[in-house]
From TrEMBL:
Name used for this protein in its record: 3-dehydroquinate synthase
Keyword rRNA-binding: no
Domain 3-dehydroquinate synthase N-terminal as annotated: residue spans: 57-166
Residue ranges of domain 3-dehydroquinate synthase C-terminal in the record: 169-310
Amino acid sequence: MIVHASIKDYEVRFEDSFENVAAALAEGAPFVVVDRRVHALYPHLFEAVASDRLFLLDAVEEKKVVDSVLDICRAMAAMGAKRNARLVSVGGGITQDVTGFAANILYRGIAWVFVPTTLLAACDSCIGGKTSLNFEGYKNLLGTLYPPDRILIAPSFFETLSEADLASGLGEVVKFNVMGGSDALSELEASIDGLLALDPETVNRFVRRSLEFKRGIIEEDEFDGGRRVLLNFAHTFGHAFEASSSYAIPHGSAVALGMVAADAVSASRGMLSAELRVRIEALVAKIMPPFAPALIDDGAVLSAIMSDKKQTGQGITAVLLDENLELEVVHDMAPAEVALGCAAARRFLEGVRQA
């Protein structure tokens, strides 16, 4: 798969084994940044990497900061890196954010290969070029647009994900395939058990479909000035659920739950039928961990929504789904509708816990 971007076109490759990943780590003596947990799980992949070219990153939210980027730049400068240096990063979204930022600012941009090891990164964030860092207590305040030159997706990595990380990734897969229209929704319903079982063919098919859907939007609106806003479907509530729960609800699961809340608003506006809403909720229920409904607090969620950097107008902006599985951007969602969405999310979680 080739993704076209103004700065460069880049390639997404699906690998059915770790051999090509190991080859990329050895090719041309790159500087390798790897999530420390991934290194511990797969030490054999890094045996050919010299110790002075290997950087272990503690890929936690507290490390998604400028200091981590500068540590990588410092280490690469110490090894004598020049403008032809190549960085290979192996890990999930935090690893991608930190290394993508470093690759962008070192010599105004060096070659970069990304190997996503989480389903969440593989099905969504690995393309699009966005990097984000936390700064002075503000989440994702700093950022750049700098895609990798190549992305290697090896679904075998997903077999060692925690249940929480797997569920988070599946949340984004479900979201993309609901956005993909009637045929995509029906195919997802028929294949959800294979996804849950991490059947390789099924995982590859739906990760590829998620990326193809996203590619169609980001190639048309690379810099977030128009249609790319549609990718925020379920994120108005999702980001708020994530933040207001102090990240007890991980990103992908928060987005899936945000879909439940947003669909409740769509239904109340007469945009979405009860039948379609039930079908979507049945899919989300299959991949949703049993979070405590009390994590969804109306006031905290509303506050988080109003603090979100994408809320730049007077009203609340959200992306809603209609009966034809088409997306509509609205700028007038009311606080009462936020409360309605929160109530729907709590009821949904109660049902998940009772199932």
